[in-house]
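queue> pop job 88
queue> type: inverse folding (structure -> sequence)
queue> payload:
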């Protein structure tokens, strides 16, 4: 089968699209998905570069990719609730060597759900990791309530663009940090206030917020403690808590590890089908351009998602 693989860790030049990759067979608890489209995430770059080696070493050749949307073509043992022919979206295991940048990918039945009906395979493939990340933060960790004020850093990115829509749906007042060129985009998603992080310091503009959702880290993370009210919550996708700042400000802190589950994906599909959430595709690449898709994500600041078209 055709797959985008690497034989060593490195930059975009190590990614090769081959026609003779071994077609995987689903293990117990897995289904085999004929991939129609694959979403690209910063984590795919991390895996390609070998920066995730402390979590798991890849066995080469390894097919890259996590997010996908496609059709179930076979079902392994001990799988219930998924049938051949189902149109699904979800996440392959990027460390298995059988990722989603391939014509076929084995996926745990716990990490997929029926795809939303009213979006294309490309749009669905851009959703799993970012929408579940936003959902886990907004609903499970922060439990956003109407009238609350939340600051979402990186509102123009994959996670941020979904988080803004979810927070507005839950009734919050939403401020977000983004480049000036993304102001119109984040406002169209529902943001009440857009702070241009290149020219403005958000920490001098807002205070007493109930929650901050951080996709950026570094100085942005450090400055976020001070904009929260006492008892507020800071959820970061990228940064561990700073013990000194935690002691100084009386807030809750969560360093989130996103878990893509059938339950969360099903709830999100419902929100997409009822037009609460709109996927945002920045650019779709052809399968042969898989290396370029990863480089584009690294080098540009996409507005929403980068997706690879795998099959018609
Ligand atoms: N812990 C986990 O389980 C987990 C899971 C998923 C993702 N992540 C991590 O979460 C992070 C975000 O992921 P993503 O998919 O949303 O990335 P993304 O799509 O690349 O979005 C990042 C966005 O941040 C904006 N940005 C850059 N610097 C900024 C700053 N200083 N202030 C405000 N905005 C800024 C950029 O937009 P502009 O055009 O406005 O600059 C860009 O669109 C990544 O580091 C990823 O690795 C962690």
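queue> result:
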């Amino acid at each position: 089968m055709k797959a985008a693989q690497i034989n060593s860790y490195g930059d975009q030049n190590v990614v090769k699209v081959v026609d003779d990759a071994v077609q995987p067979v689903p293990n117990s608890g897995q289904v085999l998905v004929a991939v129609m489209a694959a979403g690209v995430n910063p984590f795919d770059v991390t895996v390609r570069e070998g920066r995730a080696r402390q979590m798991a070493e890849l066995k080469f050749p390894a097919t890259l990719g996590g997010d996908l949307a496609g059709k179930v073509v076979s079902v392994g043992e001990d799988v219930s609730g998924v049938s051949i022919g189902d149109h699904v979206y979800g996440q392959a295991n990027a460390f298995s060597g059988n990722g989603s940048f391939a014509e076929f990918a084995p996926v745990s039945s716990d990490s997929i759900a029926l795809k939303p009906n009213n979006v294309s395979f490309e749009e669905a493939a851009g959703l799993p990791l970012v929408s579940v990340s936003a959902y886990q933060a907004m609903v499970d960790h922060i439990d956003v309530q109407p009238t609350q004020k939340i600051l979402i850093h990186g509102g123009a990115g994959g996670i941020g663009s979904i988080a803004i829509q979810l927070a507005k749906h839950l009734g919050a007042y939403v401020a977000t940090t983004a480049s000036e060129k993304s102001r119109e985009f984040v406002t169209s998603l529902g943001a009440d206030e857009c702070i241009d992080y290149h020219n403005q310091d958000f920490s001098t503009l807002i205070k007493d917020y109930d929650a901050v959702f951080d996709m950026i880290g570094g100085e942005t993370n450090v400055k976020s403690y001070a904009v929260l009210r006492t008892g507020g919550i800071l959820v970061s996708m990228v940064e561990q808590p700073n013990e000194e700042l935690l002691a100084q400000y009386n807030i809750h802190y969560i360093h989130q590890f996103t878990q893509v589950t059938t339950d969360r994906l099903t709830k999100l599909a419902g929100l997409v089908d009822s037009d609460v959430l709109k996927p945002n595709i920045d650019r779709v690449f052809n399968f042969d351009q898989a290396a370029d898709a990863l480089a584009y994500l690294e080098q540009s600041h996409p507005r929403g998602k980068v997706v690879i078209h795998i099959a018609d």
